[in-house]
Specification:
The protein has 314 residues and is mainly alpha-helical. The chain has helices at residues 2-28, 34-58, 62-65, 68-89, 95-106, 110-151, 160-168, 171-184, 191-215, 226-238, 240-249, 254-264, 271-278, 283-310. The protein starts with a helix and ends with a helix.
Length: 314
């Protein structure tokens, strides 16, 4: 039982994180430079990742993965975690650290790492469920991130109309809403278009994971602070544990519980650094949290997948 569980864990997590570390290596030897990373990341975000989400949903019976109660649970525990983090952030001395600490502790990299892990473990059904959760959490993460970074900001306010427009124009949100009628009404797709889309979608995760690794700033780790370590602990351990336990107590198990764990325990999204810098937060702290959670999640997620598999819950 133990060797089989360990082998399964490595099959799920090792390919994902090896690609991240390969990206880190390629970036250090100059095979992936900043310009390539910028262009490739834009291609992934605007084209290939939306196609991956779209095709996964189109090929899946949405009645099996679209569960309003599950979405409600995910939204509720995310909001409760945010409220707890805001209360916890008040203990930090520097106001510029507080919003960054909060955002780093709850905003996961679902679009790349979450989908990659869900696909590795559960195939298209896992990607489809993760995509549904992704559509909800993209909206919630963006709203709460702006609130967190605005709470201790002395100048300016929250531009709600612009933020709402940005959410509606998000390619992943558009992909989810376009896929829903195709799946529910069983609309056919032309074979040529479907195969072309499959080719593009298959590029998504390898390319995106390489870009994450190449963009990883290990230099930020030299400036590790207690705020960064605390935010990392919340992101990878202190929040996923009660969230997954609550889902289990509500009766979720198997694919659903496994995907919830992968979603809740993802490392911090790189976009949190960009938002922190744009809104006057501590950008060094944000970069530090992204680097720490990405590196440490190789251990925490692997351990979580192993435990859930070993006790028969996923």
């Amino acid at each position: 039982m133990l060797p089989e569980t360990l082998a399964f864990t490595l099959e799920v997590t090792a390919p994902v994180f090896l690609l991240v570390f390969l990206g880190l290596f390629f970036g250090r030897i100059g095979w992936i430079n900043d310009e390539f990373n910028r262009v490739a990341s834009r291609l992934v975000f605007n084209v290939t990742l939306p196609l991956l989400v779209f095709l996964s949903l189109v090929k899946t019976d949405l009645d099996k993965v679209f569960v309003p109660e599950l979405l409600g649970y995910v939204a509720l525990v995310t909001l409760l975690a945010f409220i707890w983090l805001v209360w916890r952030a008040k203990r930090l001395d520097d106001p510029a650290d507080r919003g960054v600490f909060v955002q780093g502790a709850f905003r996961g990299n679902l679009g790349i790492v979450g989908l990659a892990l869900a696909g590795n473990q559960y195939g298209e059904a896992g990607v489809a469920l993760a995509s549904i959760l992704l559509a909800l959490l993209i909206v919630q993460y963006n709203l709460l991130s702006v609130v967190a970074l605005s709470l201790w900001r002395h100048a300016g306010g929250i531009n709600w109309p612009r933020m709402g427009l940005d959410v509606l124009r998000n390619p992943l949100i558009i992909a989810v809403f376009l896929a829903i009628p195709f799946s529910l009404l069983d609309w056919p797709l032309p074979d040529v278009g479907l195969k072309t889309a499959d080719y593009l979608a298959s590029m998504t995760l390898p390319l995106a994971l390489l870009c994450i690794g190449a963009a990883l700033d290990l230099g930020a780790l030299r400036k590790t602070s207690s705020a960064a370590l605390s935010s990392t602990a919340y992101k990878l351990l202190l929040l996923p544990l009660p969230m997954v336990l609550g889902a289990w107590l509500l009766g979720y198990e198997g694919l659903t519980l496994g995907v919830l764990f992968l979603i809740f325990s993802c490392p911090t999204a790189a976009a949190s650094y960009v938002m922190a810098r744009a809104m006057g937060g501590n950008a060094v702290l944000a970069a530090n949290i992204v680097a720490l959670t990405t590196l440490m999640s190789t251990l925490s997620i692997s351990l979580g997948v192993f435990i859930l598999r070993f006790i028969g819950l996923s």
